[in-house]
Amino acid sequence: MGIFDSILGRTKPPQADLDVLFAVPQAALSLQTESFTATGSGSVCFRDVEGAADDTVMADAEKLITTSAGATVTRSSDRFGFHWLTVTRTDKDVSGLVTDLHAVNSSLADAGFGSALLCSTIGFATADAKPLALVYLYKRGTFYPFVPLDGEKRDNALELQIRGIVGEDVPVEPDLTKWLAIWGAPGLG
Length: 189
What we know:
It holds the Pfam family PspAB. This protein is α+β, with helices and mostly antiparallel strands and 189 residues long.
């Protein structure tokens, strides 16, 4: 950052710390003690980059992940035009899932598409089978819980409860206005 950037108040966004994803298994244990269960599913959300270069990187990442025992990979797009690569593990192993998601993120970042990464989700379910996710925001380097309800509503009270449960395990986004709704995210209804 140069002197003019400082004078004009411009800042560089922080670089995403992809390794912080490896703290999620501890958060999963904390959630498990409170009767939340891992679904074995997680996703990476990204903006499409023009050309076929990102498609090649995604295909390579898919091949890498599908060689894992019990992992399947699907691609989808939401109604907002964002692309999702979803990894589902039949063994519901959170550590393995995080490793798979990290591989996708690292592949995109290493190929120069780090600015296209938006978020990653790790799926969980409540005791009464409501979906929820821990969402990692790349540009912020933090997590927040997202609990969707029918009719594009959120269970804010449960989100705050989850923040308290995982707050010692992962860096939680302190600015609640950054806890964005990710309607239509795979695995979240």
